[in-house]
Amino acid sequence: LFFQLPSDSFKYLGWCDIEEHGVRGNQLLCPRVREGPSEEELFFRKEGRTLKKRKQVTDTEKWEKRLQENWESCAELNLSFQDLGDLYQVENFQRILRRLIRVEKLWLVDNSLTDLSAIRLPRCRELNVNKNHFTSFKQLPKIPQIQHLSLAENNITTLSGISDFRHTPLESLILKRNPCEFQERYRQLVFSNLPNLKILDGVPKLPEDCSPPDIKFFYKMCTIL
């Protein structure tokens, strides 16, 4: 388009920045929480004139915004496809994750996430982090109540650290399109580390999945005569 739409002046605003409404965070299932570009970046994009000038925010307004976000009350939330292109956007995203103390279902699909090990989600039962950049189970958030975990299309190369979920109520795990899926005796190894697991990659636990993993897979022994 060669002309500005009426909504262009709002395209970088989160819902909290729009005036005269009382919507709270726990009333939204798919809010956009990504921070907009800085004033400097807008200047270089030659977009500064198209946006409403940002006013100085007082401490009172900051506190009101924090209450409006209300992340502590969210039970079900979809924060996928946030396009976190800058460090300050990632930091703001993690700030929100740390406030999700009551969330039970959380989707974080395709956010280029690499490490959430400092995040704790104490009530989370269902977590979807498909299409991110995790390389290890150690990089996942602390999820002691997890029942359904989806990690499809990440870059997890080994099953190291998967035993950390042994003492959780994890029932269903999806690891499709991760390098670890091609590991020898993959299904047997997963179920041997997670004896309470019922479904792996959408397939229920089968009798052949219960056979003990080959001891040679774990140890290489050298006999000296």
TrEMBL record:
Gene3D superfamilies: Ribonuclease Inhibitor (3.80.10.10). InterPro entries: Leu-rich_rpt, LRR_dom_sf. Transmembrane segments: none annotated. PROSITE patterns: LRR. The keyword Repeat applies. Keywords: Leucine-rich repeat, Repeat. This is TILB protein. The gene is Lrcc6.
